[in-house]
Design a protein that fits this description.
By secondary structure, the protein is mostly helical. It has two domains: 1-29; 31-73. It has two helices and two strands; from the N terminus they run H-E-E-H. It has helices spanning 2-25, 52-72, and strands at 39-42, 47-50. It has a two-stranded antiparallel sheet.
Amino acid sequence: MPSVGKAVVLIGVVIVVIGLVIWLAGDKFNWFGQLPGDINVERKNFRFFAPITSMLLFSILFSLILWVIRRFF
């Protein structure tokens, strides 16, 4: 059980760090969601947004971070 507690604390710390980065540098991420390949359709009574490229970029970055964490721990 102690390893579960450590994992929960680590996840909490990661969430806090991500929150601080977004809070302090949120205006620097205006490009996120507006990359080529992100689908944005706006009509009179309809709006559709599918951030395909942004989510691929996020997935690759998140996978690299997890790989580095597993590599060193």
